[in-house]
């Protein structure tokens, strides 16, 4: 496996967006990519979770088996990887290098264990970290339920994990440069965009 192409990556400092499942990360990123179709590259993660309706292999995720995932772990093919709920998720070195080679700014949508690994990575250039928060846990639960993509058991795991994400964001260890509360979508998008594109 090729090492991280640090020179190419450094020219375009990456952005990490994190926050509880259901906070609105995908919604905000979709808008951003529609408004700026050539500026960013979404880091397509590997996951062992199955595709949701409409999700495309190679665009939203690389959907792989647990065996394929663990093989790539053994090959040291990931910049970071973590387990979330019952599934594995990881950012491959290749996903990030592909974006750097196109001269685009890399955007990673990852959970907190991955955030910690990226923030403490020995070679990956430090990205800028954006945390997207729901207005409250009640609203988060409503959004997860009305999204209707997960079974009850998975929703409960996501809500439990959401508490950990919120606690982490408040802790001294958190690397976040900016926290945006996604209450009104237009307002949250504007704030996130200002952070991401710097104007
Ligand atoms: P994430 O990617 O963080 O898991 P999503 O982008 O899938 O979250 O958003 C979760 C659900 O909440 C989706 O159904 C989305 O349409 C909805 N949603 C996102 N932002 C808002 C908002 N500001 N107000 C109301 N609903 C929202
Ligand atoms: P979902 O199943 O809702 O798409 O994602 C669940 C969680 O996994 C989200 O918090 C998302 O940010 C996170 N995630 C997605 N890809 C990766 C990845 O490559 N690495 C890590 N650590 N988390 C990821």
UniProtKB/TrEMBL annotation:
The molecular function terms of the Gene Ontology recorded here are: ATP binding; GMP kinase activity; hydrolase activity
- Report the family membership: Belongs to the guanylate kinase family.
Q: What are the entry keywords?
A: ATP-binding, Coiled coil, Hydrolase, Kinase, Nucleotide-binding, Transferase
Name listed for the protein in its UniProt record:
Guanylate kinase
Give every Guanylate kinase-like domain span. 12-197
Q: Give the EC number.
A: 2.7.4.8
Q: In which domain of life is the source organism classified?
A: Eukaryota
Which Gene3D superfamilies does this one have? Answer: P-loop containing nucleotide triphosphate hydrolases
Task: One Pfam family, please name it.
Answer: Guanylate_kin
Q: What class of enzyme is it?
A: transferase
SUPFAM superfamilies on file: P-loop containing nucleoside triphosphate hydrolases
Q: What is the lineage of its organism?
A: Eukaryota, Fungi, Dikarya, Ascomycota, Pezizomycotina
**Has the keyword NAD been applied to this entry?**
no
Q: Does the keyword Translocase apply?
A: no
* Residue stretches in coiled coil: 145-172
This protein's GO cellular component annotations are:
cytosol
Database matches in PROSITE patterns:
GUANYLATE_KINASE_1 (PS00856), GUANYLATE_KINASE_2 (PS50052)
């Amino acid at each position: 496996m090729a090492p991280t192409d640090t020179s190419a990556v450094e020219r375009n400092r990456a952005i990490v967006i994190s926050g509880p499942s259901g906070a609105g990360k995908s919604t905000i990123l979709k808008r951003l990519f529609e408004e700026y179709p050539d500026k960013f590259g979404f880091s397509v993660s590997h996951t062992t979770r199955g595709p949701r309706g409409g999700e495309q292999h190679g665009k939203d995720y690389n959907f792989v088996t647990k065996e394929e995932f663990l093989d790539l772990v053994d090959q040291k093919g990931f910049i970071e990887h973590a387990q979330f709920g019952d599934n594995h998720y990881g950012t491959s070195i290749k996903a990030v290098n592909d974006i750097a080679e196109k001269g685009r700014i890399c955007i990673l949508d990852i959970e907190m264990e991955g955030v910690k690994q990226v923030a403490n990575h020995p070679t990956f250039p430090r990205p800028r970290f954006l945390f997207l928060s729901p207005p409250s846990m009640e609203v988060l639960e409503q959004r997860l339920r009305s999204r209707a993509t997960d079974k009850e058991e998975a929703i409960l795991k996501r809500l439990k994990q959401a508490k950990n994400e919120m606690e982490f964001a408040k802790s001294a260890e958190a690397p976040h440069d900016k926290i945006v509360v996604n209450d009104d979508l237009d307002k949250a998008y504007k704030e996130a965009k200002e952070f991401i594109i710097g104007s």
